[in-house]
Specification:
heterodimer, A: about 270 residues, alpha+beta, nine-stranded mixed beta sheet, 5 helices, disordered N terminus, B: about 675 residues, alpha/beta, six-stranded mixed beta sheet, four-stranded parallel beta sheet, disordered C terminus
């Protein structure tokens, strides 16, 4: 091996010729994966599937996977996104199939598209979260939500590795929906019930549209805000699933980040 | 099956566990679901094993022993094996509060429902974690309190070569290589169950005691002499052998496990696929229990290695392959292995690592091959002793000249960092032996600066306290007291920093000597030490291998309370030198080494006489080959590294709808 001088590429790698964006789900017991766990699982699956992934240069080459807004540990998701740099063109559908087969059950690739136009990060400014609160009645939840929405600002505190952070949950909350009537027994993603509720116990559900902010408002923060305004404390941990990410349109719906590259921006 | 005791249901406890997981650190370690994990139908298996690694998931998951047995057992149609690891105290407290039993991560089945619990002890510091698991499973801690329905607890791994300190808590110790004996144990349990469990638990244990390599402590009586030493160890029944000889698996090529390594979802200590390229070592380092108890050397062939690496990389997606053994550069065909693999994985960002390399068997071509296709890690060597004299005592005959020459060449070729491993507290050691480590590190930095023309090179010295282990020539040695070790390390630090211009490029890592003394108690203890383990556990002892959980105070207090009334003590078990005729607690367990040879080698150590490697010089009669009916198995194997091509599954998937592409080459 030739001697490598400082500043030289130690490991000249083929260039990136194409990028593919994927939407994937984090389901079931794999919702306990942290973002780093998800990233490692993808790096290995990419290799197992034989994806011609591009690598960074240097002594320690890493596969070029770009992540955006990962769901926190413990939260499930139907709408996570990653962009993969490739050294040769690949049919996105074939890539999705091969990668899905190589990933552990519970990390499931749902859609793929060639990356064009606006960056992924410019295509996402909000999430839709679905919540299940076992042991909480729907009326109790509705009352707590009304109390939350009546405020202009509801701040919760979160302890992060870099210290205590104050997070204004109310400011990030675009809208909240609670279905009428009794609780759903199945989660939106069609899984078995999260908690052994014995079949008859109540389980309140709601859907929240949360605007992206820094730091991000997590599902736990939304629940924390309900505690702050109404003392709502679910007897067992609530379960949250991210149902969608995208750009908020005027009607409060989200546009698909993998949709055509004509990106609509909010007024 | 219609038999009432076979239809024990083992429903998953995951529904009870799941609400606890958001409240604990790193919940992913408890959910299972790893790539290549297996979860067989409970009713399909006649014999069911729970395989436990009694440490945290991040340490236990990469363990090769558990992975091998997991696959070997699950390949049998009539058996199943699931894994479990130690739960951290945060989850343990919640499990107790909510009545959730100890569980496997595969099926989340309660441990108590299995026929057998196999526990792999790489280190003695996992003993308290075994007690946690048994207690959380509702299994009586003491083997004598277990009824016919309780699982049979089988200890394995290197620490099982002296299982006496845990004799009260285990039913069986399986001595030596596990690949074959787990099958035989399965057969014994299967037959006993099929017969309607005649004679109850006692009869099952009798049958296991008659199985080669299986030691059943409860079928042996131990008596003690007035001086505190063991007077006698004898079987208490007919049909129980007086000595249990270790198992040795020969022809490693016929045991190509793991074929599909587990790929963790959580971060673990080794993020790589591992292939064992040979087992055993005859370098003869006198401190090294692994080298002594795994003889003789048995190499995997070039072709066998090639196939295992191929299978592991395909099945896992790991970007690093570890070529494991006790001294990997000693494989007779290591140059062909590394060049062949580097050629095969050219352009795929797949790097190789040789975790244990001797500086005298290493060369820069090897270093270049292993880093050709991927990350270039630092170089690591283990001179173990700082002075030439102490290296003769421990029989680790690597010279400082070899070390300096190798690191100079590496620094000239662009490496910037070297790690050196040493031990402190070795037999006959004086301050000067340890202080020479500083001189060696200084000379490495100077040589590196000269060779590279740069000042930013680094040398890290990492120092562990020496613990005398059973079945080694040092089994008779006095362990150094932690105060002695800590004092020498303080002096060494001062010596390293005596020249600031060089010392700033040297990092020094060490642990204090206290955990080593407890490890020494557990390593060379006898059955009386069981009381100490139990007391420490009852007082909260957990995860003793972790400095943030280890409490020296708790151990010495428990040792004083439990041992001194019996006329022995922590010092008696650790810092006391043993005499030639003393009955050692593990004398009835045969590692194949002749006791006389070990004693002579101990005397040679004290005289500073070295012993060559029998792979390259005549047999020195350690006794292993004749007593275990084995022979050295080394190359050249006359085989080649097949298969040769790397198949791209994505390309195949496009034309083949995602079907597996089968073998390459």
């Amino acid at each position: 091996m030739a001697r490598v001088r400082p500043g030289e590429a130690a490991n000249p790698a083929p260039p990136t010729v194409m990028r593919v964006r994927l939407r994937f789900a984090k389901r079931g017991r794999l919702r306990f994966l942290s973002h780093r766990d998800v990233a490692r699982s993808f790096e290995r699956a990419v290799r197992r599937a034989g994806v011609p992934v591009a690598h960074s240069h240097g002594f320690s080459p890493h596969p070029r996977l770009s992540w955006i807004g990962a769901a926190p540990t413990g939260a499930a998701s139907e709408a996570e996104f990653v962009e993969i740099g490739l050294t040769s063109p690949v049919d996105p559908a074939a890539l999705a199939t091969a990668l899905d087969a190589a990933l552990p059950e519970g990390l499931d690739v749902l859609a793929a598209a060639v990356a064009e136009g606006a960056a992924l990060s410019d295509r996402i400014d909000a999430s839709i979260w679905s919540f299940e609160l076992p042991g909480v009645g729907q009326a109790e939840l509705r009352a707590a939500l009304d109390a939350l929405l009546a405020q202009e600002s509801v701040v919760v505190e979160r302890i992060t590795p870099s210290g205590r952070k104050q997070i204004d949950v109310r400011a990030a909350l675009v809208r909240v929906d609670t279905p009428d009537g009794t609780a759903a027994k199945r989660s939106p993603s069609g899984e078995s019930p999260a908690i052994p509720t014995g079949g008859d116990e109540v389980c309140a559900i709601m859907t929240a549209v949360v605007r992206q902010s820094t730091p991000a408002v997590r599902p736990d923060d939304v629940l924390g805000a309900l505690d702050v305004v109404a003392g709502l404390k679910p007897p067992v941990p609530a379960k949250a699933t991210r149902m969608a990410q995208g750009l908020l349109d005027h009607g409060g719906a989200l546009t698909d980040p993998l949709g055509s590259d004509r990106v609509t921006t909010r007024a | 099956m219609g038999l009432p005791w076979v239809s024990v249901t083992a429903p998953s406890v995951f529904a009870e566990l799941e609400p606890l997981l958001p409240k604990v650190a790193k919940p992913v370690q408890y959910v299972g679901g790893e790539l290549n994990a297996q979860s067989k139908d409970w009713d399909s298996a006649a014999v069911r094993w729970a395989l436990m690694y009694p440490d945290a998931y991040e340490v236990g998951l990469p363990n090769q022993g558990v992975m091998i047995l997991y696959e070997v057992l699950n390949e049998r149609a009539d058996a199943l094996a699931e894994r479990c690891y130690a739960v951290w105290p945060d989850l343990e407290a919640l499990m107790r509060e909510h009545g959730v039993p100890a569980f496997t991560v595969d099926g989340h089945r309660p441990l108590g429902a299995f026929d057998l619990i196999g526990v792999s002890f790489s280190t003695e510091l996992g003993y308290t974690n075994l007690l946690t698991a048994l207690d959380l499973a509702g299994i009586p801690l003491h083997a004598t309190d277990r009824d016919v329905d309780a699982p049979v607890v089988v200890a394995g791994g290197h620490a099982a070569f002296n299982p006496e300190p845990i004799a009260d808590f285990i039913d069986v110790a399986a001595i030596g290589d596990g690949e074959e004996v787990v099958g035989e144990i399965t057969d014994v349990v299967k037959e006993w169950k099929a017969q309607g469990r005649p004679g109850g638990r006692h009869e099952l244990l009798r049958r296991l005691a008659a199985t080669d390599g299986c030691y059943v402590p409860s079928l042996y009586a131990v008596s003690y002499a007035d001086d505190g030493a063991i007077a006698d160890v004898s079987p208490v029944e007919d049909g129980v052998p007086g000595t249990v000889t270790k198992r040795t698996t020969t022809d490693l090529d016929s045991w190509p496990y793991p074929k599909a390594p587990l790929v963790p979802l959580a971060e673990t200590v080794h993020e790589r696929a591992s292939v064992e390229i040979f087992r055993g070592c005859t370098r003869g380092c006198r401190f090294c229990q692994a080298g002594m108890i795994t003889r003789p050397v048995r190499e995997r062939s070039l072709q066998g290695i090639g196939e295992m690496v191929d299978s592991a990389v395909r099945a896992s997606g790991f970007d690093e392959v570890g070529l494991l053994s006790l001294s990997s550069a000693d494989h007779s065909e290591i140059a062909e292995v590394t060049k062949g693999l580097a050629d095969r994985y050219e352009g795929t960002n797949t790097s190789l690592s040789l975790p244990s390399t001797r500086v005298d068997a290493f060369n820069i071509d090897l270093a270049n091959e292993i880093s050709r296709n991927g990350r270039r890690s630092g170089l690591t060597f283990a001179p173990e002793g700082g002075s030439e004299r102490i290296r003769r005592v421990i029989n680790k005959m690597v010279s400082e000249e070899d070390l300096i020459r190798t690191v100079s060449e590496a620094f000239a070729q662009g490496w910037r960092q070297v790690k050196l491993y040493f031990m402190c507290g070795l037999p006959t050691e004086e301050d000067e032996d340890v202080l020479e480590i500083a001189g060696m590190a200084h000379r490495v930095i100077k040589a590196g600066r000269a060779a590279s023309g740069r000042n930013d090179i680094r040398c890290t010295i990492s120092i562990g306290g020496f613990v005398p282990k059973p079945h080694t020539p040092f089994q008779w040695a006095a362990q150094a007291h932690p105060d002695v070790v800590d004092d020498r390390l303080r002096k060494l630090r001062a010596a390293v920093n005596s020249d600031r211009k060089i010392g700033r490029n040297i990092g020094m890592r060490y642990h204090d000597g206290q955990p080593s003394l407890i490890e020494g108690l557990l390593a060379r203890g006898d059955r009386r030490v069981g009381r100490v383990i139990e007391r420490v556990w009852r007082e909260g002892g957990r995860f003793d291998g972790w400095s943030e959980h280890f409490s020296y105070e708790r151990w010495i207090t428990a040792a004083a309370a439990e041992l001194e009334p019996l006329g022995v003590s922590l010092d008696w078990f650790t810092t006391r030198e043993r005499g030639r005729d003393e009955v050692l607690p593990w004398d009835h367990l045969d590692s194949g080494l002749e006791r006389e040879w070990l004693w002579d080698d101990w005397q040679d150590a004290l005289d500073g006489r070295e012993q060559d490697d029998c792979r390259w010089t005549p047999c020195f009669d350690c006794g292993v080959c004749p007593s275990t009916g084995t022979d050295i198995e080394v190359g050249p194997s006359g085989t080649t590294l097949l298969p040769l091509t790397v198949v791209n599954p994505l390309r195949a998937a496009a034309s083949d709808r995602g079907e597996d592409t089968g073998t390459g080459g």
